[in-house]
Amino acid sequence: MLDKVITISREFGSGGRELGMKLAERLNLPFYDKELISMSAEESGLAEEAFLHYDEHISIQQEPFKQRLYTPFSMLYEVSMSDQIFLTQSRVIRKLAEQGPCVIVGRCADRVLENSINLFVYAKMENRIKRMNSLETGVSPERMEERIREIDKKRKDYYQYYTGCEWGKAQNYHLCLESSLTGVEGCFNAALAYLQCYI
Amino acid sequence: MLDKVITISREFGSGGRELGMKLAERLNLPFYDKELISMSAEESGLAEEAFLHYDEHISIQQEPFKQRLYTPFSMLYEVSMSDQIFLTQSRVIRKLAEQGPCVIVGRCADRVLENSINLFVYAKMENRIKRMNSLETGVSPERMEERIREIDKKRKDYYQYYTGCEWGKAQNYHLCLESSLTGVEGCFNAALAYLQCYI
């Protein structure tokens, strides 16, 4: 029986979220992706907007002064807003893991947890543009490519800043799946087969 | 029906060769690993010892003078022995691919060919030491770890020197499999499931 959390890291537009949802459904596990934002806001008492703003990216810039006025004095020179957000999300992720196996997408969960099974999903740029354009109409392929590169860069920087590990380096994950060749379905079949000694 | 070559890159001791053999057997495909050495020697007319010596590693150092005396004059300042070996092996790999699908282990076949399905296999150091110690008795775990690191470094340098790509970066492969968690059997099941749209 599966006794571990499955984490999914993913390039934007590669279908990682879809793969996670399919695995959660098939294995009858809770699924967490954007859900972590409101759960973390609730846990911390901070506004959900702050979690949305800093979701999977870091701000190297100093916080605006106005915002700092509302930061508790003891934290003023200690923990930046993005650090607070990361720490809260990590606490929520660890609590979820204590409750039992589940599927968690993104948010460095593969490094926050010590004993998870970690998947990385990626795809060719042309396939990711096509995929995202089919989900969001009215955006040119050029603008979509720009957006994909921006979001990937944010995810990569965020991962590397908070974990010290290299995003997309195979050895950081148990199974890395390219979704252009076989579609999300092929990745789903491969992941299920890989996990079969646990399920 | 599978119409592509399957290439396998692998960390030393991770079971990549075993996975390749199992896939070749199951899919009824020719399998090439060390076989490429004698095939390339035959293709080039160079001694098999030279291919063994330079197998999957580059020599940055100048060739010894004695060896250079036997190098054809026109090649003396043009193509080093390791370059000759790489070029011959690449020619052999392309010829094999022209004959139809097969499984090829190592030798940058994933970059030599343009349309292959590329797997990367890796494992935790402790598992690789255990695996290699079970195959070769009389070597201490400490010495085995040293050997594993040496061979990995050679493979990595060789791959990066001849392809310009990063060895072990997930996006360079279609499927990357960690064999400590599930054994070679789990990787085999995952690879078969991934390939099922082709077989």
CATH architecture classification of chain A? 3-Layer(aba) Sandwich
Judged by helices, strands and strand pairing, the structural class of chain A is: alpha/beta
As for the number of domains of chain A, it is: 1
- Helix/strand order of chain A: EHEHHHHEHEHHEH
Q: Rough shape of chain A? A: globular
CATH class of chain A: Alpha Beta
CATH superfamily of chain A: P-loop containing nucleotide triphosphate hydrolases
Q: Which pair of protein chains has the largest interface, and what are the residue counts?
A: A-B, 29 and 29 residues
**Remind me, CATH topology of chain A?**
Rossmann fold
Strand content of chain A: 5-15%
Task: Tell how many strands the DSSP assignment of chain A holds.
Answer: 5
Assembly classification = homodimer
Mean pLDDT of chain A: 88
Number of helices of chain A: 9
Cα-based radius of gyration of chain A, to the nearest Å: 17 Å
